[in-house]
From TrEMBL:
Residues 194-203 have a biased composition (Basic and acidic residues). Residues 182-229, 243-316 are annotated as: Disordered. PANTHER family: DNAJ HOMOLOG SUBFAMILY C MEMBER 9. It comes from the Eukaryota. Coiled coil: none annotated. Residues 286-298 have a biased composition (Basic residues). CDD domains: DnaJ (cd06257). SMART domains: DnaJ (SM00271). The lineage of its organism: Eukaryota, Metazoa, Ecdysozoa, Arthropoda, Crustacea. It holds the Pfam family HTH_DNAJC9. The keyword Phosphoprotein applies. One of its GO terms (cellular component) is cytoplasm. Keywords: Phosphoprotein. This is J domain-containing protein.
Length: 316
């Protein structure tokens, strides 16, 4: 088995690239693209807690490589026929900017995009299908089930359990002992871990946007504060995961008043004015020094002006 397929199995629990995207082998090319978009929103690093961000980034990168194989007709054909992926592409793939690659296909994803997808996914038929599939795969081990379930929250665990119990009642899934006999202590430990991760995420948002000093102030500043937090968080993630991320205009103003040579306005004012061609120096110890001969000078002299004095000198 290739190293890449081993990574898929380690991260997604599947070495079958089609199963990673949640599609059948007979899927059309256009549907592969849609499946990649849908799964990438689920594993996007934007939604990960600080503790899990490294794992989320790895998932996102591997998912991009999955699509680079199935989304290419030639590579897909080789994979379908041999069941392997060439490892000689691994070095190139590892160095690829997968976030930029994703955007070249779908454009920029924002935190709001991920949140909107989450709203449509939670408590949907798609979520139920994924939950039952993971339940079968992990034979009722809820720690593993919830670890792989998209947008899992500890406060929703009773709802998940009810879905599984209803499915067991109609024999849609088997009654695994790991589920029906799970110790209460194991569930309490999972709840504690989930609460800790939720607190870490909350602290990250607070550190970016700043907490309100009182409930009244929080209500009064709710909209403004939320916008600031969203902007700061998105820019923070862009800087961390995207190479050459665009910065906001006006971020750096230091040195804006200096000239390219580092001179201030006062430095520029001390520079002596340049002489115009054909004019004598404005100040000369010898009034005759610097006079052009009639043969070489192109400037017409005024007979009314005393010798050695130009019109410019007279005006001054």
């Amino acid at each position: 088995m290739s190293e890449f397929l081993a990574q898929c199995e380690e991260v997604f629990g599947e070495k079958d690239l089609y199963k990673v995207l949640g599609v059948r082998k007979t899927v059309k090319d256009a549907d592969i693209r849609k499946a990649y978009y849908k799964v990438s929103l689920k594993v996007h690093p934007d939604k990960a807690t600080p503790k899990d961000r490294e794992d989320a980034t790895k998932r996102f990168q591997i998912l991009g490589r999955v699509y680079s194989v199935l989304g290419d007709p030639e590579k897909r054909k080789i994979y379908d026929e041999t069941g392997t992926v060439l490892d000689d592409e691994d070095i190139v793939m590892d160095q690829r900017d997968w976030t930029a690659y994703w955007r070249s296909l779908f454009g920029r994803v924002t935190l709001q995009d991920v949140e909107n997808y989450e709203k449509g996914y939670v408590a949907s038929e798609e979520e139920r299908k994924d939950l039952l599939e993971l339940y079968r795969k992990h034979k009722g081990n809820l720690d593993r089930v919830f670890s792989d379930l998209w947008f899992y929250k500890t406060e929703d665990e009773d709802r998940y359990r009810q879905i599984l119990q209803d499915a067991i009642a109609v024999e849609e899934v088997p009654a695994f002992d790991a589920f029906v006999r799970e110790p209460e202590s194991k569930r309490a430990k999972r709840q504690k871990k989930g609460a800790k991760e939720a607190q870490e995420a909350k602290e990250m948002l607070t550190s970016l946007g700043g907490p309100s000093s009182s409930l009244h102030e929080a209500i009064a500043q709710r909209q403004t504060q939320r916008e600031k937090q969203q902007d700061a968080l998105i820019q923070h993630l862009m800087d961390k995961y995207v190479k050459d991320a665009p910065k906001k205009k006006g971020a750096k103003r230091a040195g804006a008043e200096t000239s390219p040579k580092g001179l201030t306005d006062s430095d520029d004012s001390e520079e002596p004015p340049k002489r115009r061609k054909g004019h004598p120096p404005e100040k000369s110890p010898n009034p005759r020094k610097g006079r052009k001969s009639p043969k070489t000078s192109k400037r017409q002299t005024n007979p009314a002006v005393a010798p050695g004095k130009s019109k410019r000198g007279k005006k001054r």
